[in-house]
Amino acid sequence: MSDKETVLELVKRLPATVSLQEILREIQFVAAVKEGLAEIDQGQGISVESVEQLLETWTTP
Q1: For the whole model, what pTM was predicted?
Q2: Residue 14 — left, alpha, or beta (φ > 0 → left; ψ -120 to 50 → alpha)?
Q3: d(CA 3, CA 37)
Q4: N or C, where is the chain less crowded by C-beta within 10 Å?
């Protein structure tokens, strides 16, 4: 699915009362997810273990 088709489908699923700012946030979220998935496909992701270790450093005093 092209990026344009993805956005069109996203907008169709949103309620009629959605604001432009909310639409923008949704599009940015989808774009970030697609970018992350592309990075993983290219072998640029990081392991769950690495993320867990990083989170530990953020939460321990």
Answers
A1: 0.70
A2: beta
A3: 14
A4: C
d(CA 40, CA 22): 27
Give the closest residue to 7 by CA, choosing from 35, 26, 33, 22.
26
Read off the pLDDT of each residue in 39-58 and give the average, rounded to a whole number. 90
Residues 6 or more apart whose CB falls under 8 angstroms from that of 55 comprise: none
Rounded to an integer, what distance in angstroms lies between the CA atom of residue 14 and that of residue 28? 15
What's the CA gap between 41 and 30, in Å, rounded? 17
Q: What is the pLDDT of residue 60?
A: 76
Look up the domain containing 15 and give its range.
Answer: 3-59
